[in-house]
Amino acid sequence: MASFTDDEIPVISLAGIDDDGRMAAVKKKIVEACEVWGIFQVVDHGVDPKLIADMIRLTTEFYYLPGEEKLRFDMSAGKRGGFMISTRRKGDVEDWREVVTFFTYPRRDRNYSEWPDKPEGWIGTTEEFSEKLMDLASKILEVLSEAMDLEKGALKKACGELNQKILTNFYPKCSHSDLQLGLPRHTDPGTITILLQDQVGGLQATKDGAKSWINIPPMEGAFVVNIGDHGHYLSNGRFKSADHRALANSKSNRLSIATFQYPAPEAIVYPLKVEEGEKTVIENPITFQEMYKKKMSNEPVLAMFNHKGPNKLKPST
Ligand SMILES: O=C(O)CCC(=O)C(=O)O
Ligand SMILES: [Fe+2]
């Protein structure tokens, strides 16, 4: 049984996890969080608060640039990364956000011509942020491996060469926040996501199929970590793929920076450990690339970021 209360997303300190005694306690908390929610916050994660503050500041500054500056980096015409305005209407509800996508790992895939050159310093800060989050992700994958009762390197090995994508989300304030979602309900496709949100709030998770939604309150300096579909499959469904969404806000603009950790495209997706008599969550091993494609064809909202789906661009106001 989980020791966290039913309506609280766990906050877990990673202080001293390299020491075995402390690791056991962290592991226990992470197991509880992942079995119930698939999402938790981490503090004492070792990423420099100044780097976090700089990343939020510079990212925000980009979104306040005039529309034509931002559109210099638009993702149309087959570009993988860069700036995009994403809108979608479903019944009375629509969502609106601006995004900038950076493909950061493997490093050889970095296409710097797609990385906005303003504000000054954003490229260097994004590079440093990417590297530090890759280190943090590796550490979290080790703890998660142990939490799945596997050897420390198991998840990393199953991922092959780790891929990383940084997606910065800007949700302009909107007066119809009752009719507008920042980002509709979804699960992330990758192994884990490490999310940084500003102090506005709006991220929510559900563990009962959207009957009730729980806020994930902003915490200065904390990261939200969630399990994605790949992580869920590797655990044979024991760890949830976090079901989450972001609300719009009528008073403030909101910023979040999601760092998605993916396996290599050719990595095999299949549970790493199956107990005797237990069924597997997926029938046959498939590659991550196949798994991703299948998900995108079922979830148009995510398909927009596959860059093959709709890619409507309007100048920002
Ligand atoms: O903005 C947020 O808090 C959530 C972002 C998110 O879930 C995503 O980009 O996949
Ligand atoms: Fe997400």
From TrEMBL:
Keyword Oxidoreductase assigned: yes
Transmembrane segments: none
Entry's family note: Belongs to the iron/ascorbate-dependent oxidoreductase family.
Protein name (record): Fe2OG dioxygenase domain-containing protein
InterPro entries reported for this sequence: DIOX_N (IPR026992), IPNS-like_FE2OG_OXY (IPR044861), IPNS-like_sf (IPR027443), Oxoglu/Fe-dep_dioxygenase_dom (IPR005123), Plant_2OG-oxidoreductases (IPR050295)
Tagged with keyword Lyase: no
UniProt keyword annotations, A-Z: Iron, Metal-binding, Oxidoreductase, Vitamin C
Species of provenance: Citrullus colocynthis
Pfam families to which the protein is assigned, alphabetical: 2OG-FeII_Oxy (PF03171), DIOX_N (PF14226)
Domain Fe2OG dioxygenase: 162-263
Domain of life: Eukaryota
